[in-house]
Amino acid sequence: MEMESLQELLVEEMRDLYNAENQLLKALPKMAKKASNPQLKKAFETHLKETEGHVQRLQRVFEKLGKKPTGKKCAAMEGLIEEGKEMMAEDMDEDTMDAALISAAQKVEHYEIASYGTVRTWAQLLGDEQTARTLQQTLDEEGKTDKLLTDLAESSINIEAAQPN
User: Fold this and answer.
1) Of 22, 29, 31, 105, which sits with the fewest C-beta atoms within 10 Å of its C-beta?
2) DSSP symbols for 63-127
3) Which pLDDT tens digit goes with each residue over 29-40?
């Protein structure tokens, strides 16, 4: 597909994000189930609800733009989720698995933060403040989740995983 404008690129990248979020909707329940730390389990369950909201926000933006959200597969998210599946299949003690789950989740969050930051900036540049605000709301939630995961890792989970068995 040849793109002739930043507006077309914005729509294409939001399609990528829409697919990424939908892939994540399927992966998060599996991560929550695999987590043994109650706070980590809750963080994944909370982010699942937020991710449902991210999909709904993107749908509203596409409606406003008169575009369809589908038609693109996010290969990056597919790869990140596949890496997470491989890791979850490994034989690890619970604390180490929780540390590994945080690692996998933060890779996803960082991808989303970079992607939402980019499309938000493009929407601002194109003068579409409503879309930019909507994307910023999701970007804020992704950042909050990343910070929560870091806090869990640094305050307890990584420390517990580092203890000899």
Assistant:
1) 29
2) HHHT--S-S---HHHHHHHHHHHHHHTS---HHHHHHHHHHHHHHHHHHHHHHHHHHHHHHHHTT
3) 999 999 999 999
